[in-house]
Amino acid sequence: MAAAAASPGGGGVALKPRTSPKSVKFLFGGLAGLSAGLLRQATYTTTRLGIYTVLFERLTGADGTPPSFLLKALIGMTAGATGAFVGTPAEVALIRMTADGRMPPDQRRGYKNVFDALLRIAREEGIPTLWRGCIPTMARAVVVNAAQLASYSQSKQFLLDSGHFSDNIFCHFCASMISGLVTTAASMPVDIVKTRIQNMRMIDGKPEYKNGLDVLVKVVRYEGFFSLWKGFTPYYARLGPHTVLTFIFLEQMNKAYKKLFLSG
Questions:
Q1: Do 73 and 156 belong together in one domain?
Q2: Structural domain includes residue 19
Q3: Given this model, what pLDDT does residue 48 score?
Q4: Do 60 and 154 share a domain, yes or no?
Q5: Full residue range of the structural domain in which residue 76 is found
Q6: Sign of the C-alpha dihedral computed for residues 117, 123, 124 and 125 taken in this order
Q7: At which of 110, 132, 154 does a domain end?
Q8: Of the residues 105, 132, 159, which one is the last residue of a structural domain?
Q9: What is the pLDDT of residue 12?
């Protein structure tokens, strides 16, 4: 029953080690998705953080008084909407490449990398398709950044005013963890809308969903109201560390920039 294995002195045929096709697919599929993820971060994240930092500094009082929470939220909304518009093409490519492996073989798009995805989408479906779902993406970004950026700034200000914290990495860590919790609760419903619209297909010549509201109505009707927050814990487990690293690096880079270029 078992195949004969070759021995050093025997005359059997040597069996070459085999690599699982699934492992190859996982590795190269992951790399393809990684390219889209990196491009998304390079467009969306840098744009939103840059705009928020500039507007926050310009709206800070001459005596160092920070903007009010409402103004912080408004700055976050502006930064998020702009960043989302810039990053939507990479977002569309990322959503499609991530979902590709879950589709039947005859329905897979087979993008090689993010640039191949962007070129093929523009060529086969038209340039406007790169901004498909732009409105719900911007709506999500408005909610996320109003929650994330404003709650981080407000939490940091509260911790510093308490007298138990100084402006250091530990303070940034605590403020960003609070921000991650607020952002998770606020963003999950709009994240579901954005993802489903960007990944929807045509059914009998008609789009699967009419708009973002139609997505919410169908999800609540067929899956239940609290399904809008399904997977809250793993979502926060992903978003929490991401938020921590984002703000810690941002704070350190801002300090380095001020020290190198503004100290004189």
A1: no
A2: no
A3: 94
A4: no
A5: 30-132
A6: positive
A7: 132
A8: 132
A9: 52
Is residue 112, in this structure, part of any structural domain at all?
A: yes
CA distance 257 to 40: 24
Band the pLDDT of 23: cuts 50, 70, 90: very low
Query: How is 115-154 classified by DSSP, letter by letter?
Result: HHHHHHHHHHH-GGGGGTTHHHHHHHHHHHHHHHHHHHHH
pLDDT of 36-95, one tens digit each? 889 998 999 999 999 999 999 999 988 889 999 999 999 999 999 999 999 999 999 998
Q: Are 107 and 203 found together in one domain?
A: no
Specify whether the CB–CB gap between 91 and 198 falls below 8 A: yes
Residues 182, 109 share a domain: no
Q: Which amino acid is at 110?
A: G
**Which one, of 131, 138, 140, 227, lies nearest residue 190 by Cα?**
140
Q: How far apart are CA 7 and CA 51, in angstroms?
A: 67
CA distances from 90 to 52, 94, 111, 114, 205 (A): 21, 6, 13, 7, 26
